[in-house]
Amino acid sequence: MATTRKRSAKLARRSAKRVALVHLAHARSGDKGDTANIGLIALKPEYYPLLQREVTVARVARHFRGLIKGKVVRYELANLNALNFLLHEALGKGGTLSLKTDAQGKVLSTALLRMEIPVPRGFRVG
Q: What pTM was computed for the model?
């Protein structure tokens, strides 16, 4: 039965269109030491289940590959229709110690909004 669900999910993704997160959510980011924090908030409550399903730890880690060295952790905030991601070892030791141009990770929210996810063809965006 689990195999059937996995096959159905794969078929659904193949027939899906790809949409950038900027059309489904807004985001904010910041820092705490060497960890970047990105909040991803659904623009409409009906978008939240799609974000829950498609914006996974693995996808976010892959999207930021080469920029972060540590693990990605995801927290769900269903009452806010939001996801919160912690990107560990993302800021070159952070704040005053980092040689990165964005030592506080402020542009990481914009970078996440450029990530594309599969959206079912009949799903209305906008």
A: 0.80
